C-alpha cells in the first residue's frame, strides 16, 4: 500500500480562466486526485485571481502565458483560452517539452493544426490531447462498441441534433461550426471509424430570436463518408427550450439511439412531464471528469495521453474549413480528401 508521500502530484497550469477554464480549475482541484494547480493565466487583468479567490484557491497568477508555460513548477499545460490563442499556446507548450491538454478546437484552421501535428512528432511520442470529451461519455462509448461489434449491422445513416440556448449574442456562423458542430464532426468520424467524403452546410428559415446578422441559425450539416454513410445534423444555437443532443445510428439490422439524460418525472395538474437540461456543462459533466482523470493518470506517469489526438483535431479542422466554405457558397457540396493517418497516430 502506497503512503501519500509516494504518490506523484502533477503540477498543472491553466491558461484561460473563462467559463470552461473556471470549471476545469474546480475539477482539477476538487474532483481529480493528485493534481496541484500551481499557476493560472488570463489575458484580462485580475480575472484569474478573482476566480481563485472565489474558489478559495491559491496559485501563481500570470498575465503572459509564456511565463506560465516556462515555469519549472508547471508540468502540464491546460489550454482553455479563446480559440484564437490555442495555436500559440499549444505550440509554446510543445516547444517547452510539456504535456498539453487543449480544449476544442485545436486551432482555428487546418494549417495551424498541421503545424501542431508536426511539432508534436518531433518528440517521438504523443504529448497532446484535445478536449473532445464525448469520447469519454459512457453512452457514446457504449454506442461505439455496439457499432464496432456489428450489433446493428453496417451503419447506413446518422440522424443528429445539437441544440443550445446558452451561446453569447455575438456567436456567429463560424463559431456555430468550429465550436458547436465540431463536436459531431469529430464524434462521427470516431464512432464510424470512417473518413468523410464530402460536406454541405446550408441555412433554413431564421428564427425570430436570432438578432445577429452574422449568424445563420438554424443550419443543416450533411456529410457522406467514404464508406457510404449519410449523416444529417441540425445545428441550432438559439434554441428556446433547452440543451438538446440527439444521435441515432441507423444500421442494416436496427437502430442505436442515444439516451436522453434521465430527469425526475412529475405527475401534476393532469400532466406527466420531465425536465429538459439547459446547460451543456451539466449534460456532459461526467464525461469531463472521466476525460481529465484518464489524461492525468497517463501524463502523471510520464506516459503519452491516449484520448483524442492532434490528428483528430486536424481532421476536424479540415472538415470545419470545408463546412464554412460550403455555407459561404449557399450549401454547395465540398469534397474532402485527407492524407493517410501517420503511423505516429495509429493506435497500438
TrEMBL record:
The gene is iolG. It is an enzyme of class 1 (oxidoreductase). Residues 11-132 form the Gfo/Idh/MocA-like oxidoreductase N-terminal domain. Residues 144-335 form the Gfo/Idh/MocA-like oxidoreductase C-terminal domain. Pathway: Polyol metabolism; myo-inositol degradation into acetyl-CoA; acetyl-CoA from myo-inositol: step 1/7. Belongs to the Gfo/Idh/MocA family. It catalyses: myo-inositol + NAD(+) = scyllo-inosose + NADH + H(+); 1D-chiro-inositol + NAD(+) = scyllo-inosine + NADH + H(+). PANTHER family: INOSITOL 2-DEHYDROGENASE, PTHR43593. InterPro entries: Gfo-Idh-MocA_inositol_DH (IPR050424), Gfo/Idh/MocA-like_OxRdtase_C (IPR004104), Gfo/Idh/MocA-like_OxRdtase_N (IPR000683), MI/DCI_dehydrogenase (IPR023794), NAD(P)-bd_dom_sf (IPR036291). This is Inositol 2-dehydrogenase/D-chiro-inositol 3-dehydrogenase. Its EC number is 1.1.1.18, 1.1.1.369. Involved in the oxidation of myo-inositol (MI) and D-chiro-inositol (DCI) to 2-keto-myo-inositol (2KMI or 2-inosose) and 1-keto-D-chiro-inositol (1KDCI), respectively. It holds the Pfam family GFO_IDH_MocA. Keywords: NAD, Oxidoreductase. Homotetramer.
Amino acid at each position: 500500500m502506497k503512503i501519500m508521500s509516494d504518490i506523484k502530484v502533477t503540477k498543472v497550469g491553466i491558461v484561460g480562466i473563462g467559463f470552461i477554464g473556471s470549471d476545469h480549475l474546480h475539477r482539477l482541484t476538487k474532483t481529480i486526485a493528485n493534481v496541484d494547480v500551481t499557476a493560472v493565466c488570463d489575458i484580462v487583468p485580475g480575472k484569474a485571481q478573482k476566480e481563485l479567490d472565489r474558489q478559495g484557491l491559491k496559485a501563481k497568477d500570470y498575465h503572459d502565458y509564456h511565463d506560465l508555460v516556462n515555469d519549472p513548477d508547471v508540468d502540464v499545460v491546460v489550454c482553455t483560452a479563446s480559440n484564437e490563442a490555442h495555436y500559440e499556446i499549444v505550440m509554446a507548450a510543445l516547444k517547452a517539452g510539456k504535456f498539453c491538454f487543449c480544449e476544442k478546437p485545436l486551432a482555428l484552421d487546418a494549417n495551424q493544426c498541421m503545424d501542431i501535428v508536426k511539432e508534436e512528432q518531433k518528440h517521438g511520442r504523443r504529448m497532446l490531447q484535445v478536449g473532445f470529451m464525448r469520447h469519454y461519455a459512457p453512452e457514446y462509448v457504449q454506442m461505439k462498441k455496439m457499432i464496432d461489434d456489428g450489433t446493428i449491422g453496417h451503419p447506413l445513416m446518422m440522424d443528429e441534433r445539437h441544440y443550445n440556448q446558452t451561446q453569447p449574442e455575438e456567436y456567429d456562423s463560424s463559431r456555430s461550426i468550429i465550436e458547436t458542430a465540431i463536436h459531431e464532426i469529430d464524434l462521427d468520424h470516431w464512432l464510424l471509424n470512417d473518413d468523410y467524403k464530402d460536406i454541405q452546410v446550408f441555412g433554413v428559415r431564421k428564427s425570430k430570436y436570432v438578432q445577429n446578422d452574422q449568424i445563420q441559425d438554424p443550419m443543416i450539416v450533411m456529410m457522406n463518408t467514404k464508406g457510404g454513410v449519410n449523416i444529417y445534423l441540425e445545428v441550432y444555437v438559439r434554441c428556446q427550450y433547452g440543451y438538446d443532443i440527439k444521435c441515432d445510428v441507423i444500421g442494416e439490422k436496427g437502430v442505436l439511439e442515444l439516451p436522453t439524460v434521465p430527469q425526475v418525472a412529475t405527475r401534476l395538474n393532469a400532466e406527466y412531464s420531465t425536465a429538459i437540461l439547459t446547460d451543456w456543462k451539466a449534460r456532459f459533466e461526467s464525461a469531463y471528469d472521466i476525460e481529465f482523470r484518464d489524461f492525468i493518470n497517463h501524463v502523471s506517469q510520464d506516459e503519452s495521453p491516449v484520448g483524442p489526438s492532434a490528428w483528430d483535431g486536424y481532421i476536424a479542422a479540415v472538415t470545419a474549413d470545408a463546412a464554412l466554405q460550403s455555407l459561404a457558397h449557399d450549401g454547395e457540396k465540398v469534397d474532402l480528401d485527407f492524407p493517410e493517418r501517420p503511423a505516429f497516430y495509429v493506435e497500438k
